[in-house]
Amino acid sequence: MNERILRVLEFKKIIEQLNSQAATSLGKNLVDQLKPSTELDEVVQLQEETDEAAHIVRLNKVVPLGGITDIRESLKRCAIGGILSTEECLDVANTVYGGRQVKLFIESLEEESLPILEELADRITPLRELEQHIKSCIDDHGHVLDNASAKLRGIRSSIRTFENRIREKLESYTRNNSNMLSDAIITIRNDRYVLPVKQEHRGSIGGIVHDQSSSGQTLFMEPKAVVDLNNQLHEAINKEQIEIERILKELSGHISSFEHDLHENIDVLAKIDFMFARAKLGQQMKAAKPIINDNGYIKMLQARHPLIPMDEVVANDVEIGGDYTSIVITGPNTGGKTVTLKMIGLCTLMAQSGLQVPALDGCEMAVFREVFADIGDEQSIEQNLSTFSSHMTNIVDIIKKVDHDSLVLFDELGSGTDPQEGAALAMSILDDVVSRDARVIATTHYPELKAYGYNRENVVNASVEFNVETLQPTYRLLIGVPGRSNAFEISKRLGLDHHIIERAKGFVGVDTKSVETMIASLEKSQLDAEKDYEEAHEVLLESERLRDEISKEWKQFELKREALYKKAEEKAEKALTKAREEAEFIVNEIRQMKSTVTLKEHEWIEAKKMLEEAQPNLSNKQNKPSSKKSADKQDLKPGDEIKLLTVNQKGEVLEKVNDKEYMVQVGIMKVKVKRSDLQLLGKQKQEIHQAVATIRGSNNHVKSELDLRGERYEDALQRLEKYIDDVLLAGYSKASIIHGKGTGALRKGVQEYVKRHPHIASARAGEGSEGGSGVTVIEFR
After folding, report:
1. I need a labelling partner for 765 at 20 to 30 A (CA). Which of 120, 152, 278, 591 fits?
2. Structure pTM?
3. CATH (one of 3.30.1850.10, 3.30.1370.110, 3.30.470.20, 3.40.190.10) for 705-780
4. How confident is the model over 308-328, as pLDDT tens digits?
């Protein structure tokens, strides 16, 4: 990308705004180097980076880039054996810490997919050990700590000792010889402890004079008694400095061993800061991510010039590269044509630099190999060139380089010379550039170019709207409508005599009048179409709003319906639970009488199983009994086939107890039920007597012995009862109960139970091969 276009379109001002958004010197350095890319893949990658960072910025999350500095010069020096200062070492530690915080920040983000930031975070090496090593030697103020080495700790201990001894001796002077001192204080001159001695007592104190006051009345003397101590103190201080340099040299070497990782961290942190700077600038401009293409297509909705304040700028729709490749904007001066021209060019440069463009979502921008512009008055006094010559020099250079991958911006093409020749030259230049399939946007105030767009393929006319009522441009771009002269209307508004205006109109040719009439009609049609579009758009928005409301209400209805179903099922479940409890009670009552009943035990078990399986599928609404059917008041007679609705089982009416209750038989059970719980299935049927058959089930799942050892007494008897039911149903002739010997309580309980059981013929203790007295063998009838 040529440097001239960056200067003409004021791209540097965008760089300055971007620079203010960078948080570190690393990011600012990348901003200063930013240039538009001409490679499609690179531009797409830059836009993806900016979009990821913008997503985080929109969530009001701030990447922690504090404390990070550019340590590359320090790394370069320590790599060749140089010794870093304490401040430089501390910068390394702080940068390592900052990099680790950025890594943790990115890893803690809960967004679904941030591939670019995640990849950058993976490249950051924490280097916690290096940071801790530096912080263990240097404090936050850049001072080497006593614990940096055992030798340094010893030296500083001796320094403190010497200083204390010197102060003690000097304080004795201030107490005992205060009359000889100008002031009873201890001070320092030439890095040595001294006393302010009066001139006349110089001999009395004795020692070395290091300084005197401006009046000469006070001498700063080092008494003889502390000379040796001061010398020892200086020697210790020198040793301290030597040890500090040794520690810093060791630290520098340690830092140098991590040079590669540190450089990688710096590069990653610089890129992250650069990404977020672009994102924050986009948020400030209310910009959007453009779709990038390489076919020369530009489409921006409500695009704004990025350097004009948002409360002043006028947004415009711009499209080029689809139905037409060139736009010729005509109209009077000061109408905003140049601003529109620069806006398109600057947005193109921004998009190719990875910056979002100030337009609505869904905008598309093309990647151009070159952007050319001839804008403004570039008259050169030094080169003795006129305005026209300067423009033509630029245009000649552009024509030499332009091709299908170029965007060309011409401002006031052909101006600065004779109008007829300038207009002819402008049309010829446009023909040449358009023929090369370049994207061209040109502004002109020549009326001859108003018909240019109608006579050329791939060219469209445009203009910037002018409000005749206010005599001010509106800066709205009208695609498809050429600009028209407003001289007569403006003159009339300003008070020029009517007869002068009418005479002037008479001088205008018929063709010109026809063109102006056509343009006025086009402007009206354009405004009407825009009004219709706005109305249609409002209707569309209202339809979408209603659709969303209906969808929301439908979802609420679905939730409410499900809740009602659930509530109904819970109510039915309670009723069924109560019915099961009542049925269980009936079974227990019958079981207590089973010793006097001749029915088999397995028949009682089958009856209980029938009750347990009586619960219907609540989720199946079709299986729910009808309240109308259950409320059937038809009289029932003995022998009628019915369904007992509470257990969903068929049965037979035995007798009518009263008007509301009947005695019915369901399976082997005879129960008294309410009429409302019965549903008539068929009238009286011929009584059929069937012999009760014994059901023999598979015995594969029932063992011939039951081990009760280790069980609690009550639990053991419950298991015994169920086991006997199971083996009866399985058809066994005998079984063994293993209860063990122990205290004999369980054995006694088992033997008493089997003696009372009506289906057990005999019970005996096991033989020696069967387990002896620890086993009871039972035989069934």
Report:
1. 591
2. 0.61
3. 3.30.1370.110
4. 998 888 889 999 998 899 998
